[in-house]
Design goal:
The protein has a 10-stranded mixed β-sheet with strand order 2-1-3-14-13-4-5-12-10-11, with helices on both faces. It has 402 residues and is an alpha/beta fold. It is 45% helix and 21% strand. The model has no long low-confidence stretch (mean pLDDT 95). Bound molecules: NADP nicotinamide-adenine-dinucleotide phosphate and magnesium ion. NADP nicotinamide-adenine-dinucleotide phosphate (NAP) is lined by residues 74-77, 96, 286-287, 303, 306-311, 324-325, 372.
């Protein structure tokens, strides 16, 4: 069989620990035998970030702007313990944070649904993708403890010095107060990322706020979404046969529980924080959760939602066997390859991505899986495989399909 050719490079961001080990196995077993893999490689492993004063992270984000599509391995976000472990010059920032800030993107997280790993919510049949706005609100709030009686106000001083005031409360005793903000630019970017990702995956988009109570703050989110939808996306949604649906956050929460799935749920920052943990744990496993950063300019960066699986890596270093689930990392590759195929009109590449995903799902559904899934599956007597044998089992399934 001839290997599949690629016309444009994919930005490849390598990472750390156990996921770095899986990264190589995935390339060797599932990609290189079938594709003439064309990537621009950036080593985001912590040692190399330290050597380059984190310039490599910035370079990889710039390359993503150049080529449009990236695939990223999980990386260590340094803390005090990592400073010593890796003898770091500085406590480098989270690469995901750096990349997200440079691409101005929104992160979409979606579970990989397989028979035998059943969601706790029994009517969820298709994935529910959560899009979380990653700027402002309570995460950038100013707070005060109010010690006793007194007047508390919001004051806006314009550049010309004029003041606008709004009473928060006339305190008659002690209490607390909080000032939140957001930016129209950020909300607009969030809205565009959500609409374009809905189009790109042909899924309905839901958005919800508490605009009935928050008539200025939340209502602005609602209005910005609606204005951008009407002006830029309405016709495209009609052509794609998908809908944009706005409702109140409490109504959305109730509807999600009764829905079948198969849509994107755009959430304000706090709602997304809370709801993404609820949705992902209800779907079963962090190791079966994918994540893609979508910028309003249409750049895509795919990764697994989990981290570097440190505990497994230390076992691996001691020569012990590991059973680490590579599915989310494989889906990061297939997501990126499919998108590359779409953008380049390379049907063969997109079809390969579909087949590799199906090979993962079929392998698990046939009862072969890693330990994390064996613990929660409804399949009787599953075969528990080690990290490497699981990837080899996927390759065997894939070869039968090709
Ligand atoms: P983690 O790597 O997600 O792992 C937490 C635990 O979840 C693991 O110990 C393991 O449980 C289970 N798990 C996660 N992924 C798994 C997989 N693929 N297969 C099987 N089990 C899996 O989170 P962490 O241990 O808290 O963080 C480790 C490092 O990852 C940190 O340095 C953090 O900075 C980094 N991190 C990076 C990203 C990213 O790059 N996007 C995201 C999160 C964290 P058991 O040990 O019980 O088997
Ligand atoms: Mg959280």
């Amino acid at each position: 069989m001839d290997k599949i050719k690629m016309t444009t490079p994919l930005v490849e961001m390598d990472g750390d620990e156990m996921t770095r080990i899986l990264w190589k196995m995935i390339k060797d077993e599932l990609l290189l035998p079938f594709i003439d893999l064309n990537t621009e490689y950036y080593d985001l492993g912590l040692e190399h970030r330290n050597e380059t004063d984190d310039q490599v992270t910035v370079d990889s984000a710039n390359a993503t702007k150049k080529y449009g599509v990236a695939v990223k391995c999980a990386t260590i976000t340094p803390n005090a313990a990592r400073m010593t472990e890796y003898n770091l010059k500085e406590m480098w920032k989270s690469p995901n944070g750096t990349i997200r800030a440079m691409l101005d993107g929104t992160v979409f997280r979606a579970p990989i649904v397989v028979k035998g790993i059943e969601p706790c919510v029994k009517n969820w049949k298709k994935p529910i993708t959560i899009a979380r706005h990653a700027y402002g609100d309570v995460y950038k709030a100013s707070e005060m403890k109010i010690p006793g009686p007194g007047k508390c106000e919001l004051v806006y001083t314009a550049e010309d010095g004029t003041e606008t005031r709004e009473l928060i409360h006339n305190f008659t005793g002690a209490g607390v107060v909080q000032g939140q903000h957001n930016l129209n630019d950020s909300i607009e970017s969030f809205a565009r990322s959500c609409f374009s990702y809905a189009l790109s995956t042909r899924q309905d988009l839901w958005f919800a706020t508490k605009d009935t109570i928050s008539k200025k703050y939340d209502h602005t989110f609602k209005d910005i979404f609606q204005e951008i939808f009407d002006a830029e996306y309405k016709e495209k949604f009609e052509e794609a046969g998908i809908t944009y649906f706005y409702t109140l956050i409490d109504d959305a929460v109730a509807r999600v529980m009764k829905a079948e799935g198969g849509f994107i749920w755009a959430c304000k920052n706090y709602d997304g924080d809370v709801m993404s943990d609820m949705v992902s744990s209800a779907f079963g496993s962090l190791a079966m959760m994918t994540s893609v950063l979508v910028s309003p300019a249409g750049y895509y960066e795919y990764e697994a939602a989990h981290g570097t699986v440190q505990r497994h890596y230390y076992k691996h270093l001691k020569g012990e066997e590991t059973s680490t689930n590579s599915v989310a990392t494989i889906f990061a590759w297939t997501g990126a390859l499919r998108k590359r195929g779409e953008l380049d009109g390379n049907q063969e590449l997109s079809t390969f991505a579909d087949k590799l995903e199906k090979a993962c799902v079929d392998t698990i559904e046939s009862g072969k899986m890693t330990k994390d899934l064996a613990l929660i599956t409804t399949i009787e007597n599953p075969t528990v495989l080690n990290s490497e044998d699981f990837i080899k089992a996927i390759r065997a399934t894939l070869e039968k399909m090709l």
